[in-house]
Amino acid sequence: MLNTLSGRFLILTIIFVMLAEVFIFVPSIARFREDYLLARLERAQIASLALEADDMLAPELEAELLKNAEVFNVVLRRDEVRQLALSSPIPAPIHASYDMRDPSAMALIGDAIDALLDTEERVIRVLGNPVRDGGLLIEVTMMQKPLREAMLTYGRNVLILSAVISIITAFLLFLSVQALLVRPIKGVVSAMQRYAAAPEDARQIIQPSAGVRELRDAEESLQLLQQQLTGALKQKDRLAQLGGAVAKVSHDLRNILTSAQLFTDRIESSDDPLVKRMAPKLVGSISRAVNLCETTLAFGRVDEPAPILSRIALESVVNDVVDSERLAVGDYDLSVDSDLPPGMMIRADGEQLFRVISNLVRNAREAIMATHKPGTITVRATEDDAAWHIAVEDTGPGLPPKAREHLFKAFQGSVRKGGTGLGIAIAQDLVRGHGGRIELERSDANGTVFVIQLPKADLALAPLSE
């Protein structure tokens, strides 16, 4: 409880009320002592009136009057004449005299403190003005111990009353702090926790509702901060998606431009003067476009748009890929062929399927050419009642263990130095959009085989078991 705001308010309130009572107690006990002594003077004056009524009082009656007045003797002064009105034996010498006719506040406080601290049996003399003009002066002698005991009793009562007042005040303040501060603060904390769990959700932004101006200012500042953060997160997400999209487009566009670059190499051999003059500029422009695409491949990945499915001839798509790759091979001892059933029709998005097969074939070509050894790449296809199966086989060196471990992860599954690993990741996304999947059927020293499976039914193929 001491670690809570309301608990600390409770303890501090009790402490401060008690401190306030201490400051009040000092003048209060001084006033109590003054009233006590004045009351004894008044009682002594009343007792002396009995003597004026009858000059010859019995000793027993005189002793009874002094006992009731709680004094040892009474001296009255009238007309400059000092008269001992009542008297009895004094048990000890007079320790001090106190004049109550016109004492200062500091004198009263000092005398009260001395009386509280003095535990000895003392006899004191008290002087004062008689009431109702009963003379010029009244003087009594009395014991100080009863005065001290009365002051202690009064102090204990004040302490108990102060404690009760402080506890009640602290409890009321505790309830007030709970309602005005603690509950709104807990609401702000809960709103912050909900927002932290889902900062992108604009519904979790706090709505200011506190009645206390300072807390409402804090809520409004927090609301502004959350709005800015949510906007920044959304903008970051959009930029990440845009970056991923640009990376994918740049990857495939680079492949297309590379093929176009190969065509321009052939154009440069033309005898046409105009072609010879324009070809270098065309080559330069395409090269710059390829470089620009390569510099954008550091962006993230996002989902591809849904494919537009239609019945297409698989041979047409594969032949476009094979022709482009044969140009890239050039004079290198590498064969790129296809082995397809005649007239096979499949249901797919032609452009996306071209990108999938092109990425797989290009990866195979680059892997084989990196070994500086001859090789072959073959695109095959089969079908059954459930799906079409398109296999891309090569006689390359196979995938290294690290590439197989991160095969379908963008920027991690590249085989060659400087590669991005986007090709196979893009291919997987595109095939998943068709409801199909890509499997690495085999990869060893004899080569690699990837198999694309496209479902014939509207339902997607079941995922591979891990």
TrEMBL record:
Domain Histidine kinase: 248-458
Entry's EC annotation: 2.7.13.3
Keywords: Coiled coil, Kinase, Membrane, Phosphoprotein, Transferase, Transmembrane, Transmembrane helix
Recorded coiled-coil stretches: 215-242
Lineage: Bacteria, Pseudomonadati, Pseudomonadota, Alphaproteobacteria, Rhodobacterales
Record carries keyword Iron: no
Pfam family, one: HATPase_c
SUPFAM superfamilies referenced in this protein's UniProt entry, alphabetically: ATPase domain of HSP90 chaperone/DNA topoisomerase II/histidine kinase (SSF55874), Homodimeric domain of signal transducing histidine kinase (SSF47384)
Name used for this protein in its record: histidine kinase
GO molecular function, one term: phosphorelay sensor kinase activity
Top EC class of this enzyme: transferase
InterPro entries: HATPase_C_sf, HATPase_dom, His_kinase_dom, HisK_dim/P_dom, HisK_dim/P_sf, Sig_transdc_His_kin-like_C, TCS_sensor_his_kinase
Localization per Swiss-Prot or TrEMBL: Membrane
Recorded superkingdom: Bacteria
Transmembrane parts of this sequence: 6-30, 158-181
Catalytic activity: ATP + protein L-histidine = ADP + protein N-phospho-L-histidine
GO cellular component: membrane
